Amino acid sequence: MNDQHASLTYTSYLALDEVLGAQRPRSGEHDEMLFIVVHQVYELWFKQLLHELGFLRQRLAEGDTAHAIRTLRRILTILKVVVAQIDVLETMTPSQFTTFRTRLEAASGFESAQFRELEAVLGRRDESAVEHYPLGSPARDRIAAAMAAPSLFESFVDYLHGQGYDTDGETRDLLLTVYRDDAGPAVVAEHLVDLDEGMQEWRYRHVKMVERTIGDKSGTGGSSGAEYLRSTLFRPVFPDLWAVRARL
């Protein structure tokens, strides 16, 4: 290999040959490409969110309030992009989706291991979340590991302990003290509420997109589609952070 081919390029650094070759439509329908690209981009953002949440937990563990806040702001901005992408999917009409839907066969967004892992990092502890993944598979192992590790809220409570707060009592009493102090930890708490709200917004926009595309039909892969998605609405990730507001 000569120096010209060995040198780093924009294409090689971003692995564009692999990325741009990863769209493999199963039909000749024009709109299938959009469907694939949007969902692949979702998975890339999920990967980045997991990356940022790992970094956030490190910053909390080290008591680094400033960088925890900056990381949360980045996470929140990514979430806004993730939600906004639904607008792109909604340019596809129900009849356009129908033209290639059968080609998806058993494939379903419910199989997104990264989203299940994201839910686990944020605190979901439902063993059914791993049922769709074979025993010993990397996806199942990652989700199980995330469920076995402390949740993000537990990391936040540990951070508060490191900031000098008494964390042995009732959680909402602890949060009440944090908010009344109105210092850096209160800013972290408010950004966690923003994160929770962003996740709820994502779920709401997602279910409305599914409803306008397939109505109450079953989802691909035999999932219950919009019916299941509706059941996930208005379930806060950090319920104590919402409940404490009635006492402020």
From TrEMBL:
Pathway given in the UniProt record: Amino-acid degradation; L-tryptophan degradation via kynurenine pathway; L-kynurenine from L-tryptophan: step 1/2
Kindly list the positions annotated as binding substrate: F35, I36, V37, V38, H39, R101, T220
Class of enzymatic activity (EC top level)? oxidoreductase
**Catalytic activity from the UniProt record:** L-tryptophan + O2 = N-formyl-L-kynurenine
Q: Please indicate which superkingdom the organism of origin belongs to.
A: Bacteria
Per the entry, the cofactor note is: Binds 1 heme group per subunit.
The cofactors required by this protein are:
heme
InterPro entries attached to this UniProt entry: Trp/Indoleamine_2_3_dOase-like (IPR037217), Trp_2_3_dOase (IPR004981)
Q: Which Pfam families match?
A: Trp_dioxygenase (PF03301)
Gene3D superfamilies, per database record: 1.20.58.480
Chain sites annotated for binding heme: H206
Q: Which UniProt keywords apply?
A: Dioxygenase, Heme, Iron, Metal-binding, Oxidoreductase, Tryptophan catabolism
Tell me its EC number(s), please.
Answer: 1.13.11.11
Q: Its quaternary structure?
A: Homotetramer.
UniProt function note? Heme-dependent dioxygenase that catalyzes the oxidative cleavage of the L-tryptophan (L-Trp) pyrrole ring and converts L-tryptophan to N-formyl-L-kynurenine. Catalyzes the oxidative cleavage of the indole moiety.
Kindly give the HAMAP family that the UniProt entry links to this protein: T23O
Name the protein family.
Belongs to the tryptophan 2,3-dioxygenase family.
Q: What is the name attached to this protein's record?
A: Tryptophan 2,3-dioxygenase
Output the lineage of the source organism.
Bacteria, Bacillati, Actinomycetota, Actinomycetes, Pseudonocardiales
Tell me the name of the encoding gene.
Answer: kynA
